[in-house]
Design a protein that fits this description.
The chain is an alpha/beta fold. The chain has 14 helices and twelve strands.
């Protein structure tokens, strides 16, 4: 079955100093053009993810400055799409997506994960739009010009969008860019819901009722976003799927006060179905989508590349989902939001 994945961190993984291959084929990423074709994928949203310098150093990633890193990743993305233009095309809106599909080509969308590169400037926001960015995940795990991140600290979660953040999401809506609230504080979420007139999304978030983590959505958030016409993309990250793994970080934990020990965390299709059923029950069948977070997550993943998505679809059939409901999850819901928002 065709599908649209609303989030991956593949561009970051290919910025590693020891990276081999490219976006078409390499031995180190879950997402590649070749794997997308083999798995029957329709479109991938590729994130340019900006983390703190210490994170990039730890991950052995080329990094000089925020602007140089972001510009370099955008340039790389465009060069790769051009190099393999016989099989993939840059997509910026619904019309591009449909035309690419008719031509038998993959669609590659460009996003920013972490709004800091906008740097409090509407001119820079418009610059990224002109570069082809069609979705911005407003925050990552730190305060920035838009507002405040998700957090285990209630005080931080109670802080909403900054004045620039309010102005910026209104401008994003005018331009035709998706506002993505994954990683945003709870108060920031409700600010977006109050201000935006068009659908907004959580590109890679699950249900907080099942896994109590601030990166996931409460039942009320699910209902509010669904009422806006938005969607949430199922995140395959183990700690967002399974309550028992919520305190595991980077596969390392403290056990009985001893030194840190390596543990294995698992991303299971059975847990994915629990979250999808919950989100469908609370937000309706038009709310669910896919936002794997592949190449940005660790652990043992049952769904680790495009061809594995069929494992999820088959499991949903056995769970009683109709073919139309699975198609809505796989691509129809995301496609609708793309049609309604992107320009």
């Amino acid at each position: 079955m065709k599908f649209i994945d609303l989030h991956s961190d593949t561009l970051m993984k290919l910025a590693r100093k020891d990276a081999i291959g490219d976006l078409y084929e390499n031995p180190n990423t879950s997402v590649s053009f070749k794997k997308m074709i083999e798995g029957g994928q329709m479109a991938q949203f590729f994130a340019v993810f900006l983390a703190e310098p210490e994170y990039f150093k730890k991950e052995n990633i080329y990094y000089d400055s925020p602007d140089e890193y972001v510009e370099g990743r955008i340039k790389y993305f465009k060069e790769q799409v051009e190099k393999y233009s016989n099989i993939v095309a840059f997509a910026k809106n619904y019309e591009d997506l449909v035309e690419n599909d008719k031509a038998g080509k993959l669609s590659a969308f460009l996003t920013l994960e972490e709004g800091a590169p906008v740097d409090g400037s509407l001119e820079k926001l418009e610059y990224f739009y002109d570069e082809g960015v069609r979705l911005i995940t407003l925050t990552w795990n730190f305060e920035n010009c838009f507002g405040f991140p998700n957090s285990f600290d209630p005080e931080i979660m109670s802080k909403g969008l900054k004045p620039f953040g309010i102005e910026a999401i209104q401008r994003m809506e005018e331009l035709g860019m998706l506002v993505d609230v994954s990683h945003l504080s709870d108060a920031g979420f409700y600010d977006c819901a109050k201000i935006l007139k068009k659908p907004f999304i959580a590109s890679h978030s699950n249900a907080r009722e099942l896994t109590e983590h601030p990166r996931n959505l409460t039942d009320d958030m699910i209902k509010v976003m669904a009422n806006s016409g938005g969607v949430s993309g199922l995140n395959f990250c183990p700690v967002f799927l399974d309550r028992e793994q919520v305190n595991v970080s980077d596969n390392w934990v403290n056990i009985d006060g001893d030194d840190k020990k390596k543990v294995i965390v698992y991303s299971r299709v059975s847990d994915m179905i629990k979250h999808l059923n919950h989100m469908k029950n609370k937000g309706g069948e038009d709310f669910v989508a896919l936002g794997s977070d592949l190449d940005g997550i660790g652990g043992e993943l049952e769904v680790n590349e495009a061809k594995d998505f069929e494992l999820l679809f088959d499991a949903l059939r056995k769970d009683g989902w109709s073919e139309n409901q699975i198609e809505k999850l796989a691509y129809k819901n995301a496609k609708r939001v793309i049609r309604e928002v992107l320009k």
